[in-house]
Amino acid sequence: MVGWIILAVLITLIALILLIPVGADMRYEEDGVIRISAKVAGIRLQLLPKKKKAPKPEKPEEEKEEKPHPEKPEKEKKPKKKRALSLNTEEILELLKTVLRGFGRFGRKFRVERFRLHWIATGRDPYLTARLFSVVNAGLSELAPICSARFQCRDSSVWTDMDFARDDMFFEFGLTMTIRIGQVLTSGIGIAIGALKILLRSRRRAKREAKEEKAALEKWLAEHPEDADLWKAQQEEQARREQEAASAAEASDQTGET
After folding, report:
1. For residues 189 and 195, what is the distance between their CA atoms, to the nearest angstrom?
2. Residue 214 structural domain
3. For residue 180, pLDDT beyond 60
């Protein structure tokens, strides 16, 4: 009997925790800083950017005689290769649709207090700028019906524009919403599964395209042996520059940490 009472109490506590509303505020402004904060039970928590801690006062260190240590030869560290996502336009749009459809999966709309999306396509090349502008607006047109079906927004501001005389892109994003912990768990699982499928499919596509590109390059080099040495020299020079850039970035990170 006692075991059933404990089990009932635990189930009740879990149910109450899943019903707790959590407020989320995400902003990205022109200064390039991402700001994310959460509000739980009236307590506001700043997640990004993290608050800097006050430096602790340094204690005076006692001078100790340093014993000479034999210097060990430093091993050259090879720069780690970072795997970058190679999503094309269709896959990015499909990923956004999957994320939006994951919200409100059980028929209940999410409440959004404020949504803001301001973007200006910029560039000196009118053709590329206009093409990017049309692609982004086409994607927004496809996402708009999904957003209206999944979200209930009180205040929204969305607009796009073009500017051929400007070099840096203008982008502002803001989202303030309230969501229950249970909704986060249920929606997050569905979104994670759908996003994983898209990422795996994108990886297979990238590998297939890389193999096709390699085969086409080998065929071209076989047909043009006089240009093979020049191409190899260019590749070696590019690899050397990338290694130098990676080493310089690693050295700057180490100096910043110290």
Report:
1. 10
2. 19-49+86-248
3. yes
